[in-house]
Design brief:
alpha/beta, 5 helices, five-stranded parallel beta sheet, Rossmann fold
Amino acid sequence: MQDKQTVFYVDDNPKAARGLLTSVLERSGFIVVTADVMEALRRTSEAQFDLALVNYQMPSKSGSQLAREIKFIRPNVPVVMISDRAFVSDEEFDFVDAHFGSGTALDDLIATMHMLLSPPFVNQRKRAIPTQWSDST
C-alpha cells in the first residue's frame, strides 16, 4: 500500500473554499495541511508536503507570487494554482506546474495532482533541478 501524500493548501477563505476542498482532498486519499497566505512561507519551511495547492487571488499576495516563493524554498515540489479569474497572464504561470480555473471538475484537479506526484514526474523534476538555489549575500 502506498503512503498517503501530503498537500499544502493555501487559501485566504478558510471556512468556505478551503474547508470544502480540504474535505474533498482528504476523501481522495490525501493528507491536507492548510494555511492562509500570512502563515504560508513559515509553514513552507517547516511542514513536510509533496505538493502545494495555492489560490490565485488572495489579499496580500497572488498565488503566482506565493508559487515563486515556494519554489525557491522547495524547488522539486509541484505547485498547482486554482483561480476563479477569467484571465491570468502567462507570466503568472512561471513557477506553477498546473493551473485550474473556475468550472474545473474536481476529478480533473485530483487526477492532475496524482499525475504530478507519480514517480515519472517526481524523477523528472529531481533531474531537472540538480542543485539548490543559494543566496550570495
